[in-house]
Design a protein that fits this description.
Length: about 425
Amino acid sequence: MTQPTVSNHTATADRVARICGAVDELRPALVAFAQGLVRIPSLPGQEAPAHDYVAVKLRALQLDVAIVESRFDELRGHPAFNDDGLAPEGRINVVARWPGATPSRSRSLILNGHLDVVSAGNVALWTDAPFSGVIRGGRLYGRGACDMKSGVTAAVFALEALMRIGRRPGGDVTVQTVSGEESGGVGTLTTIVKGCRADAAIILEPTTLKLCPIQSGALTFRLRVDGRSIHACMKRLGVSAIEKACYLIGRLNAFDRARHLARPSPYYPDPLNIAPISVGTLSGGDWHSTVPQESVIEGRFGIFAGESVADAQQAFVAAVHDASAADPWLREHPPALEWFEGQFEAGQTDTAAPILLALATCHEAMAGEPAVMEGVTYGSDLRLFTNHAGIPAVLYGPGDVANAHTVDEFIEVEEVVTATKVLALTIDTWCA
Ligand SMILES: [Zn+2]
């Protein structure tokens, strides 16, 4: 890294001050925009009105706005396509371009955010209506406030702030709002299949303003376990499929631990929770006084960054085989394994990638503290950029993922404002 010169430093300080001023002036409009966006219940399959809302704003900023439809017939052949089972009609995305002044000499940037939100769950548990968009104590409440409509808001207003102070980027800046991230990523995959490319992408997921260039993947598995039913009073002559399932779960936990010990990473705070295996359902038996004949385990199997889906599946098959071989009953009656629903790869950007350095520098200038780099344990659209478009990508946005998908989901408004400033300075620096 080159040392910044004094004049560079002064120039940066001036840019920081001007951007901060512009974002602060825009604050009421920014908050109102985020509230309006949260108030649109853009559940999976019903994202279109939220995209229209964003498109109106981006057109008002004079961007080249395209509405891009996710056509499942065009995506089906792609290795990263996940059919989320929702009707493909109306699955639109917004791709809005701010053309750079010197595109052949400057770097381009994609700012990507999903507008689909997960369901509100039990509405009775919420303090306000789930899509209220109410502000109380400096927090904006509502489903999607954290994940991730505030991130999208920050991106939109970062552009507006730069326009306000007459800064035009050298390279193209593209704002993408996409559908279907929560259910498998059809929206971002659509933009990739349509040929959208840039020198880097920032995905506005809630990361508490940490830089997250690594994400784990996840596979969904089902194990069917056989037993031998008999009257409960004769239990020792039967075999409980539930007890065999519990034995397998214990072995899967040991497998999980061994995988983590073999793959330490400095980018995760908990070394045993990088790509966890978790059993989500266990069902079995049909009568309380019968030894259960059958049980079914379903769960999520995490994949480490750098591990392929095929390698991970092979390791899982071997673990189930070894567990079964060590049990006299399961040796003769091995459980049937099935992969179903989402099969999501891991993804990663080189932690020395230039976009990370640029974003970290701009974060420090605006947030007043050094940037923290971390990996995330959840799946996101990052994998689509890194694995299928060759675009270095990083998750970065306001909000804590611990507040996502929860009752009374919220975001700190101040953090959205800070994110807007960081994004504006990053665009101004990266696309100079
Ligand atoms: Zn999200």
